[in-house]
From TrEMBL:
This is histidine kinase. It catalyses: ATP + protein L-histidine = ADP + protein N-phospho-L-histidine. It comes from Halomonas kalidii. The lineage of its organism: Bacteria, Pseudomonadati, Pseudomonadota, Gammaproteobacteria, Oceanospirillales. The keyword Acetylation does not apply. It is found in: Membrane.
Amino acid sequence: MNATPESRPASDPPPAAAPGDAEQVRRGAVKGVRLLVALSGGSEDAALVRTAHRLAERDGVRWRAIHVDNGRDDSERRLMLEKDFAMVHRLGGETRVLQGKDRAAELHDYAREHRIATLLVGCSRPSGWRVWRRTLAEQLLRRGGTFDLVVVAEARQRPRFRPRHAWQPLRWREPVVAVLSILGAVAVAGALDAWLELANLSLVFLAAVLASATLAGTRSAMLSAALGFLAFNFFFTQPRFSLAIVEHGQLLTVVFFLLVAVVVGQLAGSGRRRLLALRSSREQTHRLLTYARALSAATDRDQVGDIGVTSLERWLGVPVVLLDRDEEGADLTIRHAAPPGMTLDAGALTAAGWSWQHRQPSGRGTENLPDQQWRLLPLVEQGRVLGIVALKLAVRETPPGPDQEALIEALSSQLTMALERTRLVGELGAARLSEENERLRSALLSSVSHDLRTPLASIIGSASSLRELEPQLSRQDRHELLEGILSESERLNRYIQNLLDMTRLGHGGLRIERDWISLDDLVAAALQRLGASLEGVEIERDWPDDLPLLHVHPALIEQALVNVIDNAARFSPPGGRVGIHARLDAAQRQLEVSVTDQGPGIAPEQREAVFDMFFTGGEGDRSRYGTGLGLAICRGMLGAHGGGIDAKPGPGGIGTNIVMHLPLPADEGGDRDDD
């Protein structure tokens, strides 16, 4: 640890809980956030986060990192906060940003409102020469509270903070705006000199200062205030055209003008800076939101990689490359590049390999291999490297600023999460496909073991009886055994035909060779094929005599009818009735064929599942009702004709009604003539 905690109670400690209440108190602590750590964006935040994580792990409580944004954080502190928040999330904590001017008051109110048990703060020092300012810990102690205050001191003492004033070169816009605004003020004040008093004329120059601050910033406002002070004194005080001031009243007016101009210029410049920062933040937020939406809409790794490199190239203005391991997992290869065709030199490839192996950034702007033209950023999630993003920062005239560094960090993090999402989705899809294949394989084996073995056993038994007991069998007995062999052979043939049809449907090898045929012929052929299977039930046929001819593949529709009628016969009780009904739906231009039975029916939640392969109502190979292929094949065959099939309750709520829909030709007569 780089920090050692020193506990100082913010007020008198709360009374100790009774021993019997210890477990109850602990359970209540686990539910809510009990540990709060205050981050400032400084170098001590890393020690605070690690200490908070250690204390939370020790006590088994949830913890949260909080930052109070007072609007004065520069880009470097914002970048540091982004990194600190990322560390908090990696260590299992939560984050929150509050808006407020008084940091101590916001932290105290938040801790009291959320009943925080422990508040961690850094061991800060007074800023520069402002020795009267109290530290954050001292301010919290003065406010009191029911939480424990823990001050975390760093292992290495920080140097005393002194405000740094980085001078930026003067831009041409700032002095030009200041000079033009003062010249305009002189012209306006000269025109109004005869009607206004001297104190009122100073307001014209004050407006010029405000205009300079609004158009060009604080430095232009200060320059405008100085020039306005000189111009106001030179042109409008007595004696005119001189910097000397004779009257004391005029001296007071000029001095107050200068003071007010400086204050107003500072405030207006500060407001302009805040507005520009807000616009920049809003623009960056919009970019990140657009980027996140594009990544979330990407469905595979290639789309995610392409969106990532093109967005980085467009917003940073540098070539971007995404590298990944090849199929053998040996060498790094370029998967995506923006602009297309961009390649890496040998040194950059070596740095990329080092970053992949050590999971650390390398190249330009980093501590590792900084002489490279490229910066290599490994995309790491849960200890797995998902790729390397290479940025050619050498083409930039200046290195990226803190805001751009934060943008690079945010874009890379979102790209990492998107790549991990696609990887997990791919693995989940592969696992589901493997599970589905395993389920189908098990169902197929179960079906084959039952529906091939049963008819084969009957055939073998009948054939062996004919061979061994032929002299003892009467003519009628031999005929019954032969009928059994024929019936079971036809049953076995239907099962094998179903398997072949399902294979053709699954591989797209089913060809539709249409011909004109009547429903009567299709039903008669299906009933003839079923033969002895229908001996235990009564068949009822009902449809109008004027039904139009169907333009279908006769063998396929016949097979669909065989499957549906065979199902109805097997589910019907002995002596039950199987109804075959048909009607013309002129509005939909289709023929509806219904097959009803008097069986147990199908539960509402299973009326769609019965058309899945190998679905047998959950009985598996113990089901006496078949393999679960018949209705699935029917849906495929009817769907190939543009029709469909549904399962509905039978008449009066008894049994099942399977309804098949067959579309009619648009021009029945014309098509028949063509044939």
